[in-house]
Every structure is written in structure tokens, then in C-alpha cells.
Amino acid sequence: MTKQKQHQNLSQSRDGGYTIIESLVAMIVVSVLMIAIAPVMAYSVATRVQARRVELATQAARSYIDALRTGALKPNNPTNPGFPIQDTSVAPAVAPPPASTNPQNNLYCVNLDEKAGCAGSKEFFVQGTWRNRANPADPTTTGYELTVRVYRADGFTGGTMTTQQQSVANSALGNPKAPLVVMNTQIPPTTRGGTSAYQSLCDRTKGCNN
What pLDDT is stored for residue 199 in this prediction? Predict the structure, then answer.
């Protein structure tokens, strides 16, 4: 009887040892899988954050365009800066510094939090540039072609800004020096009523013979 009990105890002890080893192996397997999956999960979250940021930047760009079309933003208005600057080149290489440093740079601040000014990653600077072959002193009288770039406000902390729009799929959290959104549109004259953007384009390009 004693030998039988000892044999049973040894069998139970061996079974218990195998259970601990299996648990350790399972923990190692789970750890390896988590290490492999963690970068994918982090990238997925970062892409979602960037996509949301691009969505907000798109809304900011549309609001800016609407303000120009309605005449809410006017040239040389120090109390409400943000009117586009003239684009004298095909593709400007460097964006100007933030409007808080120099209002003449004509950057439009879009503040989305409770703090005053534009400084964080939740705020945007909208940069507008206008083009008109007639080169008028006041482009609102004839209308103009507009390019809008929306940057993260925290991107103006130093270094050179770029004009190449960043990709949501390939940029994860994104490059703060690159615009989130780039748009092109036509702004009709805001100083005389009843003029469409199409007619303004015809007048400036000497086209649309109909």
C-alpha cells in the first residue's frame, strides 16, 4: 500500500510539473504574438488620429474659403488677418512663419480648444495664396484663383515648412511641417454682386466665348 501511494504521489507531482511548463510556454507564445501585433495596433491608432486631423483641417479650409467668398476676410485688415498673399511663383518652397509673430504673413488661425492663440497640435494655420494674370492691386475687384494649405500650428516651432501634402495612409502621425490639406478653387469678385465664379474666370482668362 505504501509503495502504491508513493507511486501515485510521484505521478501527480510529474503531472503538476508539466502543467507549469505548459503555462510558461503559453505565456511565451502570447508575449511573442503581442510583440508582433503591437506595432500594427499602434500604427492603426496613429492613422486614425491622423485621419481625424485631416478631416478637421478640411473643415478649416472650407470655412476659410467661405469667408473669402463672402468678403469676411479683406486685404490689409490688421484686426482680422488672414487674407491670401500673392503667389508670384508656381510653387512656393517655404511657408511663412505664424501670424502671431508677424500679422503681415497673412496666416489664418483656426483655434479648436479653450486656449487663446494657435500653438498646439489641435490648432491649424491656414495659408492662402492668390493668382491673377492681371495682377490687380486689390484682387477682390476681379476675383482670383486661390490655393489653400492647412498646417498644424505646432509645425511652426522651427525648421522649414514644405508645400507637399502628406498622405494619411503612409504618414502615421504625419509630418507637422507638411500641409494636411491642399485645395484649389476660384474666388469671384466680392466687391460687386451678381458675379459668378465662372464668369470671373472667363473675364480673367479671356476665354468662355459663348
Answer: 62
